Amino acid sequence: QVQLVESGGGLVQSGGSLRLSCATSGFTFSDYAMSWYRQAPGKERELVGTITSAGGKTNYAESVKGRFTISRDDAKNTMYLQMNSLKPEDTAVYYCHLRVGFGFWGRGTQVTVSS
Question: Element (H or E) spanning 7, and its range?
Answer without folding.
Answer: strand 3-7
